[in-house]
Design brief:
It is found in: Cell membrane. The chain contains 15 helices and eleven strands. With 438 residues, it is an alpha/beta fold. Helix 1 runs parallel beside helix 2.
Amino acid sequence: MPSPMRIYAGVEAGADPAAPSPLTVKEGRQWLDRRMNGVAGGANAAIGRKRELIGESAAAQGKKPESMPSEAPPAAAEGSQSVSADGAEILPSEVPPSAAVAESRPASANDLAFADDNRMPAGAMSGNLPGSAPAADVPQSGAYPANPAINEATAREARKSAWRLLLDKPVAAPAAAPAVSFKDVWFKYDKNGPDAIKDLSFEVKKGEFYCLVGGNGTGKSTTLSLMSGLLRPYRGKVRIDGRNPAALGADELFANLLAVLPQNPQTLFVKKTVELDLHEIFDGARLTKEQKREKVEAAIRFAELEPLLGMHPYDLSGGEQQRAALAKVLLLEPSILLLDEPTKGLDGFFKAKLGEFLQKLNAGGVTIVMVSHDIEFCARYGETCAMFFDGGVIASKAAKPFFAGNGFYTTAANRMARHRWPDAVTAEDVIARCDDSR
């Protein structure tokens, strides 16, 4: 269902079924403006009527109409005099400096950090270190007293430890190696041909759901082939879990490490029936028949392949082939999953089911790198999105801010509602904001 229709159905639950629902982004924007203007107009009319009633009541009693409770009292003019509790005027010069500062700004994080004396290491503010002279011996200039018992390196480490305790900041652990790493990668298909990948550098963290989006021919699928070791760059480094995929054997690369769903799922089918094809993935695996059967049955249930098991894979529709290929790939139980256009040919129901399943895999620690033109799917389920152009990544950001900041390459829901809510990216975002405005 198009996003404008989904938003309309989610907001106008129980509306007249004969009323026309918006089909395009333009119609959705017009409907949203009419609805929001109606909400604002109703609120303004209610406030105006309440003011009229207050005025009428005051006139009947011969009193001056009072202001609405929601109206804030007028701010005092700058430089005006203050009044104490007993009515006496206080000149600005009589206000204590500490009180003036406290009123002029809110408490900062540093104020809160220094407010608790128990968090402050002894001597941290006076310049004392463990084993050094007491505070009374410290010069007023703040310089450290001479102490031959400790050398300069020990003093430096002690100062660092004191500030860590003072600011309550734990020592940062060394960063884990990324799941996927590209550094200064160049690749061309022909020796004398143009470069398909140009100086590509990026990283995918372990457990991240990373989406590569962009136009046709920009190098997205080539990048997946470099990750899987099918292609080798002529310059730069490609690393999968810290290792060069092109130098690994198939058993080492695809044994619980990497799995790839190609753009053309037919390249994965080698048997006469779907069921035999699923069992083929375990050829040579050290598993019992019972273990193989349980894993295959779980994949069949997920992909809803029960009616298709006896059919030849090439006789399936495009969406059915995509589901069968995905089920076969997931039987490898990879820690890094590469997907090239996984939603191609899928209906809305199974697309949503696929997105939820990928999120479960991702929550379980599986790193997912997905190439897709389905920006609605990427915005809803992805964690990080990167824009590919002319063989390289030109922009990368968290999924929602990525699409919210794009003027053209964004979702239908964002194009429909960004004049009111610029950060609303998915249909669910727009529905939630419409509900909040009621």
